């Protein structure tokens, strides 16, 4: 737990993205293409299920209500963009880069985002089941008012990450490295594995009491 300092908590807050989308052109193409270049476009209510956009770049774009079931976005770059109401199961974002992005009211399951890089990203509202962020790098990321079911942060690096009114259910922190991670405002904090990796995070007194049985088990302490 981060040591409190006079006049503050000793934890640095995340820098949020400032996305300002100007006039966008409606996308009327046939679908996503590998290594495609999409700039200043609006994707509204489109079905990209099963399509391959690996290595594509999205700059100053808005994706609204799009279906991303089994969509391949491996090593894609999403920059200065807003994704609202996207949905899908098995979306492949492995080794992708998200920078200055707002993800709002997403409904996703089984997202493969291992090895990805998230920088200045806000994930607000919605629900994401089984989010795989193993080996990912998160910097200046805010999870706000959303539900994360069994997210996997194994081996990931988290720096200046905040959980605000976010439900964190069955999180895996095995091998993760945390620095300036603020969990105090989480609506629910449930860590299934890797509770020993909380060094570098700040939690509340109430959360510490809730985690006491897990911490005791991790340390081999028998409580009777």
Automatic annotation (TrEMBL):
Transmembrane segments: none annotated. It comes from the Bacteria. PANTHER family: BTB_POZ DOMAIN-CONTAINING PROTEIN KCTD9 (PTHR14136). This is Pentapeptide repeat-containing protein. It comes from Streptomyces poonensis.
């Amino acid at each position: 737990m981060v040591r409190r300092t006079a006049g503050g908590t000793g934890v640095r807050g995340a820098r949020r993205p400032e996305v300002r989308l100007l006039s966008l052109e409606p996308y009327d193409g046939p679908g996503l293409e590998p290594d495609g270049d999409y700039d200043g476009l609006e994707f509204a209510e489109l079905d990209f299920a099963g399509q391959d956009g690996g290595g594509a770049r999205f700059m100053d774009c808005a994706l609204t209500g799009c279906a991303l079931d089994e969509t391949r976005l491996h090593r894609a770059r999403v920059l200065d963009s807003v994704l609202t109401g996207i949905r899908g199961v098995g979306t492949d974002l492995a080794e992708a880069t998200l920078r200055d992005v707002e993800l709002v009211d997403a409904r996703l399951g089984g997202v493969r985002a291992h090895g990805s890089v998230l920088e200045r990203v806000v994930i607000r509202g919605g629900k994401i089941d089984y989010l795989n962020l193993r080996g990912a790098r998160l910097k200046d990321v805010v999870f706000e008012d959303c539900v994360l079911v069994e997210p996997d942060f194994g081996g990931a690096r988290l720096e200046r990450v905040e959980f605000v009114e976010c439900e964190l259910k069955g999180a895996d922190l095995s091998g993760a490295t945390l620095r300036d991670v603020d969990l105090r405002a989480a609506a629910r904090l449930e860590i299934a594995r890797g509770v020993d990796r909380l060094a570098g995070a700040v939690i509340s007194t109430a959360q510490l009491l809730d985690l006491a049985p897990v911490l005791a088990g991790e340390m081999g302490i028998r409580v009777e």
